[in-house]
Amino acid sequence: MTNTDILKKLFIAFAKDDKEEFYRLAEEYIEREKKKKHNIVAKELKEALYSSKISTKSIVGRNYKNNIPIPRDTEKGFPLVEIKEYELDLDSLILPEETFQILNQIIKEFRDADILATYNLKPKNKILFCGPPGTGKTYSAQVISSVLNIPLIYVRFDSIISSYLGETAANLRKVFDFIENGTWVVLFDEVDIIGKNRDDHYEHGEIKRVVNNFLQMLDTFEGSSLIIAATNHQHILDPAIWRRFDEIVYFDLPGESERLKLFELYLKPIKKNKIDLLEYAKKTEGFSPSDIKMACIEAIKYAILNDKDQLTPMELDYALSRFKERMNIRNRGRKK
Ligand SMILES: Nc1ncnc2c1ncn2[C@@H]1O[C@H](COP(=O)(O)OP(=O)(O)OP(=O)(O)O)[C@@H](O)[C@H]1O
Ligand SMILES: [Mg+2]
């Protein structure tokens, strides 16, 4: 078949609204370009092909091709993973430039895996996110999944750990088997549960086994997915875990300039009157992005419920003072 033949068939498929045939032919054409080592052309065509909403579905379709049922806990039958789709922009993620660049690089490598492959290189696909609560670890995984246009598989670690000895390993295996059959962004959230030691209510030996199991499965993982593990207790993770990851990203509390951007982002929905956001960025040291978001939402609510269409320092100050009170209570609880 010549290229013209393919194009002709492609047009016919389009005219007949035969989506499956259309995508098959388009993919074939792209493959030909790749074989000719026209990698950039192939990449551009692929991006064009998958740039619309319909295409999102077709990528999803590829994931579900084998129609493997969602893995479930053997004993209790609850699902071990959740599949989620998001529509989030990179712009909605406020991070220091270096952190942002690391994430961007991960996205680029993954997106251009085909090009890397022609040089016998692989994208980084095992990433560890760590840092304090509310700094955007879970959120970043959601953004990455949106930007890559690949669904997110959310794995809650505590649901994997079964009270029945031995089930845990089986559960993990099921999750990995499922993942290996598609292309996903996989988030193992709150993995610290496996790193917790003695004072935990799980038996020590069992936890060690779980850690070893997880590491082995990470080591031998061959799928085309991007695996992200997240924790806010990096200090209690087994040192052996660290070596298993291609990249470790630390999410720190935001500095003044990030806090300013966060205020701008989360107060965007409302008009502001006499508010100097920089002043607020200065006086919110120690706030996480999530704290700032919550305080902004509170302030907007006060304004709206008081029949104002503009936000003034009064509402924002009130929201922040309420928030600081909350933080005090939280810290008191911690010291006990
Ligand atoms: N860097 C950020 N930029 C913009 N918004 C953020 C950022 N970090 C957090 N948020 C907002 O706060 C919410 C909660 O953050 P997220 O769940 O990602 O925190 P986390 O780091 O996973 O915390 P934890 O360690 O408690 O799981 C997010 O859904 C998002 O709306
Ligand atoms: Mg989280």
Topology:
Blueprint: H1 3-15, H2 19-35, H3 39-49, H4 53-63, E1 82-84, H5 97-111, H6 113-118, E2 126-130, H7 137-148, E3 152-156, H8 157-160, H9 167-180, E4 185-189, H10 192-195, H11 204-220, E5 226-231, H12 239-243, E6 247-250, H13 256-266, E7 271-272, H14 277-282, H15 289-305, E8 310-311, H16 313-335
Parallel strand pairs: 2-5, 2-6, 3-4, 4-5, 7-8
Antiparallel strand pairs: 1-3
Helix pairs in contact: 1-2, 2-3, 5-7, 9-11, 13-15, 15-16
The structure holds adenosine-5'-triphosphate and magnesium ion.
Which terms would index this structure?
10% strand, 6-stranded mixed sheet, alpha/beta, binds adenosine-5'-triphosphate, 16 helices, binds magnesium ion, 3 domains, 8 strands, Helicase, Ruva Protein, domain 3, 336 residues, Rossmann fold, 55% helix
